[in-house]
Amino acid sequence: RITKFYRVPSTGITPPVNTGYFRELVGTGKKNYALSVSRLSANKGLDDVIRACHSVGMPLIIAGDGRVKKNLEQIAAELGANVTFTGTVSEEQKRTLFAEASCFIFAAEDDFGIAPVESLAAGTPVIGFGRGGLTETVQHGKSGILYSEKTVESLVHALNEFKQNGVLWNAQEISNSSLKFSAEAFTDAIKAFVSSHA
């Protein structure tokens, strides 16, 4: 986009993620729930997440708060879906939720997406819409499942694939894949960029 609109070359450096904090709980016993951690806004696709999890019979925890919370609660109630809304959680609570979840669902299109990387750092696979930053952070079939269409049906297909086959990597391998997005990796990338342009 920078090249298109500003007609200048650019180098992308992903933001730092505190991966070490989430890696401390790798190996925590998994529980039977999917997790979404997000600001509750219309562009996050959480209504689709609720419908898809209900369709495949997967309990869902949604952590966060925002303007569409009441609407999402109404959708869940009308479906009779097994959804828990925690509201805003502390960093420690969030880390535990990530570590214990069977998977993390990210239905938005984001330029990067810090929460999916936090999930990977905790050793939890990501089920996500395969556009934007997830194509760089999640390795399809290994650390998560990427789906191609922003629809309930496409997410249902991905969740069923995950329930039937899981992913190739174990929790430690998934966590290791997050290291290239750590604060240390960010510092190294900035230093390398500055040095090469000095």
How would you characterize this protein structure?
The protein is of the alpha/beta class. The chain contains ten helices and six strands; from the N terminus they run H-H-E-H-E-H-E-H-E-H-E-H-E-H-H-H. Strands 3-2-1-4-5-6 form a six-stranded parallel beta sheet, with helices on both faces. The longest helix is centred in the C-terminal third of the chain and has 14 residues. The protein is globular and about 60 Å long. The model has no long low-confidence stretch (mean pLDDT 94).
SSE-based structural type: alpha/beta
How would you sum up the global shape? globular
Summarize the amount of helix as a percent range: 40-55%
- Which residue ranges are poorly predicted, with pLDDT under 50 across at least 5 consecutive positions? none
* Total strand segments: 6
Q: Tell me the distance between the termini.
A: 25 Å
SS summary, helix count: 10
Strand residue percentage: 5-15%
Mean pLDDT across the residues is 94
Order of helices and strands: HHEHEHEHEHEHEHHH
Report the major sheet: 6 strands, parallel
Radius of gyration, CA atoms, in whole angstroms = 17 Å
